[in-house]
Each structure stands twice: as C-alpha cells, then as structure tokens.
Design brief:
The chain has 358 residues and is an alpha/beta fold. It contains 11 helices and 14 strands. Bound molecules: nicotinamide-adenine-dinucleotide.
Amino acid sequence: MKFNIATIPGDGIGPEVIEETILVLNKIGEIYGHEFSFQEVLAGGIAIDKTGKPLPEETVEVCKNSDAVLLGAVGGPKWDTLPGDQRPEKALLGLRGALGLYANLRPAVLYTALKEASPLRSDIVEQGIDICVVRELTGGIYFGERGRKKEGKMGEEAYDTEAYSVGEVERIARTAFEIAMKRDKRVTSVDKANILESSRLWRSVVVEVAKDYPEVALDHMYVDNAAMQLIRYPQQFDVIVTSNMFGDILSDEASMLTGSIGMLPSASLAEGNLGMYEPIHGSAPDIAGENKANPIATILSAAMMLRYSLQLDKEAQVIEEAVIKVLEKNYRTGDIMSKGMTLVGTQEMGKLIVGELK
Ligand code: NAD
C-alpha cells in the first residue's frame, strides 16, 4: 500500500526526532511492503521566519490531502516576544481547527524497564502502567459562551460555559469504544454528573453508545475521584474518555505518572481516518541540535499513526515492541538515563530501534 504522510518537523529538536522517525517508517515499509511518501511542510517558528506566518495555507492544504500528519514540535525563545496571534503555537490551534481534530488521544505508558522514572512508589508501578486518555477537543468550557458582567453578587463577574450536545458526546464516546476494542476493552467515562447538567447528558449518551460495544466494560467516575484513583491504583484504567477541560488536566496527570516527557506520544483524530500525530513534549531549545533528544515519543506517535490512521495494527505493534527491546537492552537517552545504563544520542537511539524491527 502507498500512504501520503505530511511531515512538520517544526523547531528545536523537532527536525531531529522526525528524522529518526522517518527512518523507522521507511524500514517498516521495506519489511511489510508499504510505500510511505513524505511531504515536508512548514509550521511554527521556522514558518514565521520563511513566510511571515506560523501556519502557511500550503501547509494546511498538504495536511488536508494527506493520509496522516506527523509533527515534531514548534516554538522557541526566538519567537517568544511576538504577539499572541503570530506565535508558533498558533499553528497547532490552526491545524486542529482546519483538520477538524476532535479527539485527543494521550497514552500514558510506563514500561517496566523504566519504572524507576515514575514518581509513584515502586509497589504501585510494579506491573507498569498502560492508560489511554481520550479527551474531547473541540467543545466544552474552552469553546462555550463567556463574558463579564459589571454587576455581580460581589462586584464585577466573569463566566465561562460548559456545554455539550448529544452529537459531540456520541462522537467522542464512539472513538473511545473503538480504541478500547483495540486495547483491553475497558472504558471509564469521567464526568461530574453529581453536579453538572452537561455531565448528566454526557453520561446518558455514553451509556447509549456503550450498547453498540457489548464486549467493552464501561464504568463511570467523578473527576475528583478519577484524579485520586490515577495515583492510588493506575492499573484499574484502560481507556478514560472525558470532556475537554477534565481531559486537559487528567491527561497531564496521567503522563506525570510515567515520569518521562521524552517517551510520550499523542494523536489527534478527525472524522474519517485523518489524524495528526506528535510527541507531547515541546521543542526543547535547551538541547536542540546536540543529538541529545529522545526520539521515542515521536517514534511511538508514528506507531499510533499506523494503528489509527493507516489501519496497520501489526506494524504499529512491531514498532512498540522494538522500543521495549531497546530499553530492555539498557540503552537510554539523557532524559531517561540512570545508573548502569548505556547513554546514547538521538541518532543512535533511532538506529537501535530500526535494528530491532522485524
Ligand atoms: P519542552 O517539552 O520543550 O521541554 C521541557 C524539558 O524537557 C526541557 O528540559 C527539555 O530539554 C526536556 N525534553 C523535552 N523533550 C525532550 C526529549 N524528546 N528528549 C529529551 N529531553 C526532552 O517544554 P518547554 O521548555 O516548556 O517549551 C519549549 C518550547 O516548546 C516553547 O516554545 C513551548 O511553547 C514549545 N512547546 C511546544 C509544544 C508543541 O509543539 N506541541 C508543546 C509544548 C511546548
């Protein structure tokens, strides 16, 4: 099969981690008989320097016409003083909007080889952690009606509104159940249905969608309890599906459990098969160009791309297993280095992973 992938290396360590990821995908193509055609486009600081805009129209067009988008990272101190709407990060919001990305997938995986990196007690993380937070990305309080009133109860008042429609919840719930079908078949829907009307609607829609997935076990949890349970007993979770704001907070909490920013991939999905795949870390200007960045988060993002946009489950798994093998052979980049391990750079880590692909 032939697939068109738009690549956005971006700024800082972005180009370094994307380069290693392309080597991994090319090797997968070679082994399994696929052709990945990469078209590199500009976004972020480099786009500002070359075109005056953080997200040129050409980039949006190429991304829309691709099977998937693979992004490194954008931003850096050089562009920090620009006004808000001209900053590199604007490119990310622009891409979300233009591509209709409504579901944000944030896996938090703690490999047993790296369990000492977790801030949790060793007996809690003994069996590792494998959670996927599915966050609704285009609705809720971040997009609801907001404003200010001069005369509130105790002076000027400001308000933001949490609103969800049946269609929005149905769409994200369906995504979560589909993902659960590819994992351990458990979904926890997180809400605040004891207080919020929008959460009561959320819960009733999730219950309806669940009827189409009899193999998946569904439970519900209030967000405050979910925040505690993630720390107390993270293995109870497989897929967590939740609203934009709750997901924003819980996905960061879940990633902290794994303790290593250079290891964590993410995906943002549109309707149909299009998706944008990127590591959760930023452009790490402090180590850019020094061959120190960990490429694993981006390589695992590419594995998610194979699984969710290109329907290449087996190939995705092969990449994930290659990463585990390299970690089990005790190779580490600086961010996950510990005593007795072998320190490697970005390029060496990429080569080691390519070498484990079967
Ligand atoms: P950051 O994630 O870039 O870096 C935080 C720390 O983690 C740094 O010490 C960095 O060296 C380290 N780190 C990050 N990724 C690493 C990797 N792959 N391997 C090894 N070490 C790694 O966050 P920041 O410093 O707050 O932001 C730097 C720039 O990135 C800013 O301009 C910010 O706006 C931007 N940013 C972009 C994105 C994105 O593109 N999605 C996300 C977050 C931040």
